[in-house]
Amino acid sequence: MTTNAEAPGAQPVPALFFAKVERRYAQGAGALEILRQADLAIWPGELVALVAPSGAGKSTLLHLAGLLERPDGGEIYIGGTPTAGMADGERTRLRREEMGFVYQFHHLLPEFSALENVVMPQLIRGLSNREARARATELLGFLGLKERLVHRPAELSGGEQQRVAIARAVANGPRLLLADEPTGNLDPHTAAHVFGILVALVRASGLAALIATHNMDLAARMDRRVTIRDGLIEQLP
Ligand code: ADP
Predict the structure, then answer these.
(1) Which conformational region is residue 150 in: left (phi greater than 0), alpha (psi within -120 to 50 degrees), or beta?
(2) Ligand 1 center to residue 67 CA distance, Å?
(3) Residues lining ligand 1, judged by CB closer than 6 Å?
(4) What is the pLDDT at residue 20?
């Protein structure tokens, strides 16, 4: 499986690093401060839960990490590369090459098979059809979907759909996986199963994952838990 492990002897760098990140939204005459000098480091191979009440800023944090929004202050490093001053095109390239996204709803392309949904981002990245199909087959097999390659999303269960969405997110070997309630739409049993497979994938590939969830059982199974409190990112026990 493709990994983003550093060369032997190289200094490890965080997959994601927030340094004194600020983000505020205009609110009437004032400002709504979401992040104030917030710091966060997520290391390769680490699975971190983002747990906070609704409205605390989880989506904002994920959008900042995914380079979909810019901070109002501070710096965000992706694999050691500072991004705040980057041009939009460069941010898009970094997002496409270094990150995978999983959402609560799978957003798979309905007309295409599971395999094709995982092949597509690799073709966009420039891989040959043969390479992309080989990688997609390996990934879907790892996620327990060897018998579902030619099924379309509507022919898959919710848990299977979400596993295809995970395979698609990591198809290009990202450094960082960002997920917003990835199992929030599944029943508890299926959620636990899909989450277990996600953990195995993170462990096998060495990528780093930041996963927003309301599910405390799943949060407890991650390496660390962080929350947003008073504009800071704090560690939870
Ligand atoms: P969460 O994901 O934890 O529910 P969000 O990051 O979506 O929280 O939102 C944090 C706060 O910022 C909320 O009060 C929300 O209303 C506000 N907010 C989010 N996006 C915007 C925006 N584009 N403009 C103004 N306020 C926003």
Answers:
(1) alpha
(2) 16
(3) 25, 32, 34, 52, 54-60
(4) 98
